[in-house]
Specification:
- InterPro entries: P-loop_NTPase, Ser/Thr_deHydtase_PyrdxlP-BS, Shikimate/glucono_kinase, Shikimate_kinase/TSH1, Thr_synth_N, Thr_synth_N_sf, Thr_synthase-like, TrpB-like_PALP_sf.
- It comes from Chlamydotis macqueenii (Macqueen's bustard).
- This is Threonine synthase-like 1.
- Helices cover 46% and strands 14% of the residues.
- It has 737 residues and is of the alpha/beta class.
- Among the domains are: 176 residues, Rossmann fold (3-Layer(aba) Sandwich), CATH 3.40.50; 40 residues, no CATH class; 175 residues, Rossmann fold.
Length: 737
């Protein structure tokens, strides 16, 4: 715990003189305020009458960058230290510190800010200004606060090169690094825009980044979304019907049946920007990446930070959130099962409900419908059940699953995740009926209109075609690479391969997006089970569903024949040719197949390779890895392991996505480990696995869910559209009315 004496402003004191400036040269004479005011009204900055306010730690270069930005904009430049504090006090900052002492200095500095007013200027704050709440609130009223985010290690190096031997307010036993880390919470509280400034980046480059960031902040209309099936001609005729991030989160599916993608593509990070995140925690990496993917007009950075903190807080059992574990040789596991429902879907579905709650209109209630055959149901139910009470009152979830088409553990988990705003309904049919029924309900305008008029309730979807579901997955692929760099496995810039068990193509698409954003991924290896339509497609360019029947396997999350997110990737490699994508998917719908042009297949094969795994090989891999390492793979990870062994060339590390915890598939795991006695009770199965002291341990969240009494309590309905619609209406009446 820091005492008050440690909150004092950071002022630099060199070995040469107490009053010398370490970060900037002293002005020979403070500019007269009359002259400043005159120039304020005679110049117009990038943001009109707004100020650009530069904030950051000592050594971040705020003053130098501010001068360059001011020159480029031809507007006044104000340094709070020199032009405000020393003018107001009629003494140097160092003299003021000596005069009033550390405890009073911060308050005096804040008072000076409260008396200060400017417009149309570039303002460089002191390193300690953000610690005075009232002063910063005053500054933000007429300014855009830009945080120059420099890694602490870089700041330490800069201060050392300037021969700074101590920091004012630094108590004995408290290191400079600790104080700099502590102060970050104040910088993060106030900024509107973050500019990453890692390494030896020149001040001129930082200034350009500031200008670009401010332009983006002021122009939210540039970050629009389009459908994967829309033509360029059609888009040019529909300029008045732009879709923004908030719209696509709420709507999910485009009106023409396509999927939403950002019109200008995803942001690209420089190598230096990625390197500045090497030492960052997972949540910090998530914040930085999402800030660049979601415009602050849709979700301000402060709200985004709140959402990330809630999503990846205590409900994840590992503090690293998505740790990377060495398996053997050049193979590493990206563990994505530490969330509350033990699958990779928690990464999106612990976050998306809070994004959804923020983006939807306050004037309407929403019922989120979900069809699932496995992990999605429990992840959606758990995520939406964690909303704030006020949001639960206006957002509810109904999950439909095939009553006899899921494993006992999956069924128990979905039922155990039911809460006051989240319900599961078993349907006496298969998954195809559940999914088709929901699609028909969404397209039944008479029924959806009736719900809106009669009950003030709109329907929404939270399946993997929603754009917001993909963004959190980009984060963990990027984070895995940065972890390997941080662990000195590779230097930044060296390539890695990733191998991902793939069904609906969302997870591997997120890895491809991470590659586009600057993460050095060489190959994305698509791992299929016996439902290997994607493997055939990647190898041949022919997507052919004719004569194929879905085969139930030990890895149900990839038991998919029609991979919906593949459409986004085809749109990307086709240079946003929506007409071509629409043609391909119309042909798939009507004829059951399509074939890529040769040039598109060549593009695809520069990113993707693919293989598939039999049921026997899946179980054998689980047994082999456990026998040699003591580690238990789940069935999906085992599929990826088998494919990775076959396709990797061992010239670089390969990161295998471990997408679920083995606890969810206990019968298959017990069979793979050749344990003869397999009890039917799911809880007994987990206790049996736990008795082997496995690595990792049995998932605690799954155990707690299965221990709950009343897991057998849920509604079951016939495979009839009118019955499902009746259930929906009854739920709305009971929850919202």
């Amino acid at each position: 715990m820091f005492h008050m004496v440690q909150y004092w402003p950071l002022r630099l004191i060199t070995q040469t003189s107490l009053s010398s400036r370490c970060l900037k040269p002293m002005l020979t004479r403070p500019v007269a305020f009359a002259q400043i005011w005159k120039s304020w009204f005679s110049n117009h900055s990038l943001v009109g009458n707004k100020n650009i306010i530069l904030m950051g730690p000592p050594g971040a270069g705020k003053t130098t960058v501010g001068r360059i930005v001011g020159q480029k904009l031809d507007c006044p430049v104000i340094d709070i230290d020199d032009d405000v504090l020393e003018t107001t006090w009629n003494m140097s900052v160092s003299e003021k510190l000596q005069d009033v002492g550390n405890e009073q200095f911060l308050e005096e500095e804040g008072k000076a800010l409260l008396q200060f007013s400017a417009s149309g200027s570039v303002i460089s704050l002191t390193g300690s200004n953000p610690m005075h709440a009232a002063g910063m609130q005053h500054m933000k009223k007429n300014g855009i606060v830009v945080y120059l985010d420099v890694p602490t290690t870089v700041i330490m190096s800069r201060l050392k090169s300037m021969k700074v031997d101590r920091i004012v307010g630094q108590s004995p036993g408290i290191s400079l690094k600790d104080i700099l880390q502590f102060r970050k919470q104040f910088y993060k509280r106030w900024y509107d825009i973050r500019v990453l400034c890692g390494g030896d980046i020149a001040a001129e480059v930082v200034a350009e980044k500031v200008l670009d960031a401010v332009k983006r902040y002021q122009n939210s209309e540039l970050e629009t979304f389009i459908s994967t099936r829309s033509s360029r001609a059609g888009r040019s005729m529909e300029k008045d019907s732009h879709k923004y991030f908030s719209d696509v989160v709420t709507e999910g599916l485009a009106p023409d049946g396509g999927l939403f993608v950002p019109e200008r593509g995803l942001p690209k990070f420089t190598a230096g920007e990625w390197q500045s995140l090497i030492e960052a925690a997972y949540t910090e990496r998530a914040q930085v990446i999402l800030e660049r993917c979601i415009h602050p007009a849709d979700i301000p950075v402060s709200k985004l930070a709140e959402i990330i903190g809630t999503a990846y807080g205590e409900n994840f059992t590992c503090s690293k959130i998505a740790p990377v574990r060495h398996l053997a040789g050049n193979q590493f596991l990206l563990e994505l099962f530490h969330g509350p429902t033990a699958s990779f879907k928690d990464f999106a579905l612990q976050m998306v409900p809070h994004i959804f709650a923020y983006c939807i209109p306050r004037s309407c209630n929403y019922l989120v419908l979900v069809a699932t055959s496995g992990d999605t149901g429990s992840a959606v139910l758990d995520g939406f059940s964690r909303l704030h009470d006020t949001d639960k009152q206006r957002i509810a979830v109904m999950n439909f699953f095939p009553e006899d088409g899921v494993s006992p553990i999956q069924k128990s988990q979905m039922i155990g995740c039911q809460k006051e705003n989240a319900w599961s309904v078993g349907v006496k049919s298969d998954f195809d009926f559940c999914q088709t029924a929901i699609k028909q309900i969404f397209t039944n305008s008479d029924y959806t209109g009736f719900l809106t008029v009669e009950y003030g309730t709109a329907l929404a979807a939270a399946n993997s075609i929603n754009w917001a579901r993909l963004l959190p997955q980009i984060i963990y692929h990027a984070s895995a690479y940065l972890d390997l760099v941080h662990q000195d496995i590779i230097p930044f810039g060296s390539p890695v391969d990733v191998c991902i068990p793939t069904g609906n193509f969302g997870n591997i698409l997120s890895a491809l997006y991470a590659k586009m954003m600057g993460i050095p991924i060489r190959w994305c290896i698509c791992a299929s089970n016996e439902n290997n339509v994607l493997t055939d497609f990647i190898r041949t360019g022919v997507y052919d569903l004719r004569g194929r029947k879905l085969i139930p396997t030990f890895s149900p999350a990839v038991d998919i024949l029609k991979s919906s997110n593949l459409e986004r990737y085809l749109h990307l490699i086709a240079n946003e040719d929506g007409q071509l994508v629409a043609q391909l998917y119309n042909q798939l719908e009507n004829q059951g197949h399509f074939q890529l042009r040769k040039d598109l297949l060549e593009k695809l094969q520069r990113d993707l390779v693919a293989g598939w795994c039999s049921e026997e090989d899946c179980l054998a891999a689980i047994h082999s890895v456990y026998s040699t390492t003591g580690y238990i793979l789940d069935t999906h990870t085992a599929v990826a392991k088998v494919v990775a062994d076959r396709l990797q060339d061992r010239t670089c590390p390969i990161i295998i996505s471990s997408t679920a915890h083995y606890s969810k598939f206990a019968p298959a795991i017990l069979r793979a480990l050749r344990i003869a006695e397999i009890k039917q009770n799911p809880l007994s199965q987990l206790h049996l696995l736990s008795s082997y002291s496995p690595l990792p341990p049995v998932h605690w969240g799954l155990l707690e869910t299965l221990k709950k009494k009343g897991n057998e309590d849920h509604q079951v309905c016939a495979a009839d559209m009118s019955v499902l619609m009746s259930h929906i209406e009854t739920l709305i009446q009971n929850h919202f009315m």
